[in-house]
Q: What sequence folds into this?
């Protein structure tokens, strides 16, 4: 299963041009239109207002958090609020210092440079970025060996907005050069309801309050997923209904797309089903679990597990992955009874304390 093609996946790499165009149309254009993240909005508003009052550029901004929470949208809002153009690139696209030098040397004064997945930038480019952020200058190396010469290149003042899903991978020297850092939190259901209503208005789709609640509750705390589910429910309502999104319509549509009441999709339920039915709830090693569901180890670990752990359905332990009581209840299964010991008390199950896990970690 391609993780980029999951209906509840927050990644965008696998989306076609039409999907991306719709996503762009649904993005808020001003800070006042941005829903959720109240602390981040308040802090960022102060940063931008102060910069405008001084007539200068805003401090460099680092945004961290899971995919789909609005990091790219906020970068565009920063540019719009400052009345500046924006240049968009990503860490994986910058593999050499020369790649970064070419981008930096073409920036205009006050321009916003959005660098997505900044933690995946190459080390030589990262070291060049230190000086660019702090002194607005880069040294371009001409030639090789003893005859190499460093030519200083002055840069116009600009604002770097870095986005990362793994802030812990950023080296401290880079992280410390950002004047403002913010962590994006997952959204509450009430906030996602507002997102659904706003997007429905832009898409010219009538959604009653109960329908918005149903979609928001299955959106995994992520606005991008809420918008994606809304579009699929809209399709269902137009083809099999009267075009109005009600609770019943939303529930029926998302059942077709295999998104259950808690937002779990086919891959999530396959992982839980294998863990419960094949391995008795664990502990079981990640590689064994991945083979059982026919997926790559990285797909299970990076795509399915984060949400399952956050929902309290799965636990990572030193002995392997273990299902929680909530997982048994959600899947409608009964946990196996542990055999009683000689004294009448339950004895330790295989892989219990002091024993290696039955299926390895």
A:
């Amino acid at each position: 299963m391609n993780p980029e093609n999951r209906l509840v996946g927050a990644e965008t790499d696998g989306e076609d041009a039409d999907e991306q165009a719709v996503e762009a149309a649904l993005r808020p254009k001003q800070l006042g239109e941005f829903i959720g993240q109240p602390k981040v909005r308040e802090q960022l508003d102060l940063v931008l207002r102060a910069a405008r009052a001084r007539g200068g550029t805003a401090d460099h901004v680092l945004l961290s958090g899971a995919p789909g929470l609005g990091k790219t949208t906020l970068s565009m809002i920063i540019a719009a609020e400052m009345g500046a153009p924006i240049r968009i690139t990503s860490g994986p696209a910058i593999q050499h210092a020369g790649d970064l030098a070419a981008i930096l040397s073409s920036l205009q004064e006050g321009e916003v440079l959005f660098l997505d997945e900044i933690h995946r930038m190459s080390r030589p480019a990262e070291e060049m970025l230190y000086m660019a952020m702090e002194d607005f200058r880069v040294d371009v190396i001409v030639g090789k060996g003893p005859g190499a010469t460093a030519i200083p290149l002055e840069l116009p003042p600009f604002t770097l907005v870095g986005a990362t899903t793994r802030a812990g991978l950023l080296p401290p020297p880079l992280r410390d050069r950002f004047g403002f850092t913010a962590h994006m939190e997952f959204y509450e259901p009430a906030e996602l309801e507002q997102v659904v209503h706003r997007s429905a208005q832009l898409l010219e789709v009538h959604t009653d309050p109960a329908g918005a609640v149903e979609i928001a509750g299955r959106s995994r705390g992520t606005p991008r997923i809420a918008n994606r589910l809304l579009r699929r429910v809209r399709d269902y309502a137009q083809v099999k209904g009267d075009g109005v999104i009600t609770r019943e319509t939303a529930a029926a549509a998302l059942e077709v797309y295999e998104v259950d009441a808690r937002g779990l999709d086919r891959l999530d339920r396959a992982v839980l089903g294998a863990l419960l039915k094949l391995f008795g709830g664990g502990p079981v090693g990640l590689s064994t679990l991945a083979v059982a569901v026919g997926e790559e180890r990285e797909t299970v670990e990076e795509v399915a597990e984060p949400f399952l752990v956050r929902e309290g359905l799965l636990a990572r332990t030193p002995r392997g992955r273990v299902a929680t009581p909530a997982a048994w209840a959600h899947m409608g299964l009964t946990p196996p009874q542990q055999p009683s010991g000689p004294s009448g008390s339950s004895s330790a199950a295989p892989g219990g304390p002091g024993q290696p896990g039955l299926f390895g970690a």
Q: What stands out?
A: The chain has three domains: 37-183, 189-256, 266-330.
